[in-house]
Amino acid sequence: MLARVAGRDIAVSWLVCGSFVFYLYAGWKGVAILTPSIIVDYLIASILLRLPEARSQLRTGLFITGIVANVTFLAYFKYKNFFLDTANSLFGSHFHLTTIMLPMGISFLTFQKISFLADVRAGSVDRVRFLDYLLFTTFFPRSIAGPIVRYQHVVPQLETILTGELTTHLSVGITLFSFGFFKKAFVADQLAPWVSPVFDLGPVMVQDPGLPTLFTSWVAVLAYTFQLYFDFSGYSDMALGVARMCGVRLPMNFNSPFKASSIVDFWARWHITLTRFLTANIYTPLVLAITRARLARGKRVLTRSSTRASAVMAIVVVPTLTTMAISGIWHGAGWQFVVWGGLHGIYLTLNQTWRLVRPRFWPDSVSYLRVMRPAGVVLTFAAVVVALVFFRARSVSEALSILYAMLGGHGMVPDDLRVLRQLGVTVPSSLMHSFLPTMPWIWFAVLFFWVLGLPNSLEILRRYQPALDFPVGGKQGHLTQPSPVARGGLGKLRAVFEVGRNGLALGPLMSSLAALLCLLGILMLNRGETFIYWNF
């Protein structure tokens, strides 16, 4: 609306001011810390744009300077104490650890600015206006947990704000925000009480605060798995929704990852823009460099007919483990995050190696997919759950203790018979350890059905292109009617499939659903949990 009345630059300036207010609300010191870094990257980009291609060495040196500056900036504020504490543990030194303020969104902003400099150097960006650059770097909907966006994908959309469909933008944005808000407040936040007693070693649900039992540890780990899923899914929907209200489409960052039948597919669905960034800027350059080096020395590389162990180790294992170790430490300053990244590196290595050798052992692709697709979903989910223990634990030793408890090492169940006592049932002491509270498992069953059987938010709104790179389906404004012969249970399942394939039209039914979900989310705001990715 403002763009139509006052022009593009006024509208962009308004969004920039709103974004800075958002950052200031989180803490003015964070704004003071981030602003110089943002300006330095703009100056580097401006110089790169003016330098001719013939000055390749100077361009490369300037680009490397920008990367080093960004990485050093992030390392100081996020990892200084981690490095000093590690040095104290390994070498017996006595470096003093001080409290360092971590500016909001510094990890995502750093990767986004690195991606921006890479695009400028590669020639993908040929012109940068300072006002547009400020909006690109500070746009508040993506500030906490992404997505990591590219300049040439977002800034050109500012030209269409003047001619955009205001009603459609607002309707889609509000609906997406309502879906995400419900996931965050009504689902993710309500799972937190089952997580903290084990991972934070509280007194509830455990006989000994340091010794979670088999069932309490599984409840905590599964609760955290779904808490993180719906927290990040909710944030992703809310970020897309708020941006769409402003007339901007952001790329999708979350696309039903628990439906993945392999760990490679999982990372193509979970934190999608981070996966793309790591692949483009770390994994692929490493693979190309190693492959060229092996070819120069006359060594074998990976081909369809050759999968020698040395080639797999060099071209698959090393780049994958390196990339995921960086992903782990990027998520948090602790060795448990390095282990989490290493585990996913091992998963990905096994998955990629199996893809190379599978045709030799199982050439029939049809039968393979028929068996392994459902089995792969189970295996992938189990692998993700195990790794998430390290992601949530406060140290590697605590994570190992919880994993040991998940194997029954600390006993079976807690001594908690309140539910049975309320029902008037007396349980002999010999059977105390066979009692298992049922409420968490009812929640898990419902959530399993939700994440595996129902269309996600982007699929429901598919015909309105809710994300920049999400394919459009169906006809805008028209509901897809199920076939007249599709009745009963089969008809309902087919209707769900049609919604996922074609989406639903915005109308009274969708508006009522969005309003109801938003209301339910508001009613659950008393817990006040922050976004999990706020910590990263």
Description:
- By secondary structure, this protein is mainly α.
- It has three domains: 2-164, no CATH class; 166-254 and 417-536, no CATH class; 255-414, no CATH class.
- It has 20 helices and no strands.
- It has helices at 2-6, 8-26, 28-50, 56-91, 106-122, 130-138, 151-154, 166-199, 214-245, 263-267, 272-296, 309-331, 335-361, 365-392, 396-406, 418-422, 439-453, 457-460, 488-502, 508-523.
Descriptive tags:
536 residues, mainly alpha, 3 domains, 66% helix, globular
Q: Can you give the mean pLDDT?
A: 84
SS strand fraction = under 5%
Number of strands: 0
Structural class: mainly alpha
Number of helices: 20
Give the N-to-C terminal Cα separation: 35 Å
Rg (C-alpha, Å): 25 Å
Q: Element order, helices and strands?
A: HHHHHHHHHHHHHHHHHHHH
Query: What coarse outline follows from CA principal-axis ratios?
Result: globular
Helix content: 55-70%
Largest sheet: none
- Give the total of domains: 3
Show unreliable segments: 202-209, 415-420, 431-435, 477-487
